[in-house]
Design goal:
Protein name: Pilus assembly protein PilP
Strand order of the largest sheet: 4-5-6-7
Number of strands: 7
Helix content: 25-40%
Order of helices and strands: HHHEEEEEEE
Keywords: Signal
Organism: Undibacterium jejuense
Structural class: alpha+beta
Number of helices: 3
Amino acid sequence: MTFNKFTFLLLLVPLSFLSACGDNGSSELTEWMATARKEMKLSTPKLVPPKVFVPAGYTQKDELDPFNASKLLAVLARMKADSNNGPDMERRKEALEAFPLDSLKMVGTIEKGGLKQALVQADKTVYQAKVGGYIGQNFGLITGIAEDGVDIKETVQDAAGEWVERKVKLELQESQK
C-alpha cells in the first residue's frame, strides 16, 4: 500500500487540530476540581444504633386458642341466650300496631275505672290505649300515660341483628282552630 502526498496531508491536518486543543482545557478542569475538593466539607451523621429486641415468651399456650371455631360458637351461643329481649312474635297484634308511630296523634286522656287511658287518633279514628298495650309497628309497649304524652318502649333490631329497646314519647297534639 502506497501513500501519496494527498493521503498524508489528510491524516496530518486532523492530528494537528487534536494536538492544539489537548492540554489547555484539561489543566483548567483539573484546577477547578482541586479547588472544589478543598472548599467542600463532608459531613456524615452518626448512625443511631438499632433498638434492642427482647423476645417475650408465649405464656398463653395452656389457654384456649382465640381463633378456635368452637370458642367462637360457644361465645355466640352465650350471647344468643343472654339476648332474650326480642319481641313475642306469637302474640296477637292490637289495632294501633297497624300504624307507624309517626302517623299517630295523642289527642287527650280519659279516666275509666280509676285507670288513665290515652286517646290516640289514627287516620280519622280515635282509639283508647292503656298501660301495657302495644302501639306502633316497632313492638311499642305503653309504659306510662300522662296528661302531656304517652311513654313507649320500642323493641327494634340493631345493625348486628340484636334486639334492643329504645324509649320514645308520643306527645299530646294541641288542637288547631
